[in-house]
Amino acid sequence: MKIHHLRNATLIIESGPLHILVDPMLGKRGAFMPFTLFRFKARRNPLVNLPDNSEALLAKVTHCLITHQHPDHIDDAGVAFLRDKQIPVICSQKDTRALERRDLSVSLSLEYGEITSALGGSVTGIPARHGYGFIAGPMGNVMGFYLELSEAPTLYISADTIYTKAVDDVLRNSRPAISIVAGGAAQLDVGSPLLMTIEDIVKFVRNAPGQVVINHLEALNHCPTTRQQLRTLLQEQELLYKAYLPEDGETLVFE
Q1: Which residue of 34, 94, 121, 250 pairs with 246 in a disulfide if CB–CB is 3.0 to 4.6 A?
Q2: Three-point CA angle 110, 116, 122, nearest 5°
Q3: What is the SS3 assignment for the chain?
Q4: CA 239 to CA 253: how far, in whole Å?
C-alpha cells in the first residue's frame, strides 16, 4: 500500500488497482475565505498550492472517500473533479443527499458502525466528533472510515475528530496496521479546538497498535500546530518511531 499525501487531509490511497482519493480540497492557494479572523492571522485558504505531482496522481483516481462537507475537505474544485470524472463516492448517509444535489455519483453511503463490502474488501463507518464542547454541534456530522482491503494493511482514517471512545475502540479493538489522524489543533475565533489537541495526538499515537500518519497540518489559517512541533514532542515522548508527518507531495510505502 502507498499513501500519497497531497495537502491538508487530501490524500490518495494506492492499493493494487485502487487509487482512493480522500477529502479532495483541490483549489488553488487562497481560493476561499479564512476560517479565523482574530485568533490567528486572517489569511485566505488554502495557504499552499497542491504539490507538483498532484495532477499525475489525480489522473489515476478510481474512487473517493468523503468524511464531511467542509470546504477544507471538499471544495468547489474537488466537486468539479469528482463530477467531471464521474468518480464513485463513499460517504456518510447524512451527506448523501447533499452530495447528490452537487451531481456527485454516490456509490455507497454508510451509517455509523455499519460494515459494508466495498473496494474488494470492506468499509466501516466510524463515528467522529468535530470539536470539544459545544462547538461540535454546529460543526455538523463527520465520519471516519476503517478499511480492510484485499492483500493490504488495515487502515483507519480518523477524519476531523477529537479523541473519543469510538476512536479509542477502533485503536484497541480493530487494531489497524495504519492510522491517519487529523492534527493541526484547528480553532475558530470562538470555542474550543475542533481537532485533537497536541496532548491527544500524543495519546492517539501511543495507543495506536501500528503506524500513524498525521495530516491536516500547515495548510489552513486556523491550524496553528506545525509538523516540527509534533516531531519534537513525539521525539520527547519516544513515539516518533511510529509516526509519519509527510510533506505535501510525499509518498509513504507500507508493506
Answers
A1: 250
A2: 120
A3: CEEEEEECCEEEEEECCEEEEECCCCCCCCCECCCCCCCCCCCCECCCCCCCCHHHHHCCCCEEECCCCCCCCCCHHHHHHHHHHCCEEEEEHHHHHHHHHCCCEEEEEECCCCEEEECCEEEEEEEECCCCHHHHHHHCCEEEEEEECCCCCCEEECCCCCCCHHHHHHHHHHCCCEEEEECCCCCCCCCCCCCCCHHHHHHHHHHCCCEEEEECCCCCCCCCCCHHHHHHHHHHCCCHHHEECCCCCCEEECC
A4: 19
What are 253's three cell numbers?
Answer: 510505502
Cell numbers given for 128: 467522529
Q: Quick check: 255 pLDDT over 90?
A: no
Contact between 21 and 12 under an 8 Å Cβ cutoff? The reply is: yes
The residues spanned by each domain of the chain are: 2-245
Helix 198-207 to helix 227-236 angle, to the nearest 10 degrees? Answer: 50
Give the three cell numbers for residue 192.
Answer: 474550543
Asked whether the predicted pLDDT for residue 234 surpasses 90, the reply is yes
pLDDT digits (tens, 9 = 90+) for 88-107: 999 999 999 999 999 999 99
> What is the third-level CATH fold of 2-245?
Metallo-beta-lactamase; Chain A (3.60.15)
CA 124 to CA 149: how far, in whole Å? Answer: 11
Q: Would you give the distance in Å from CA 182 to the centre of its chain? A: 6
Q: What is the pLDDT of residues 193-209, one digit of tens each?
A: 999 999 999 999 999 99
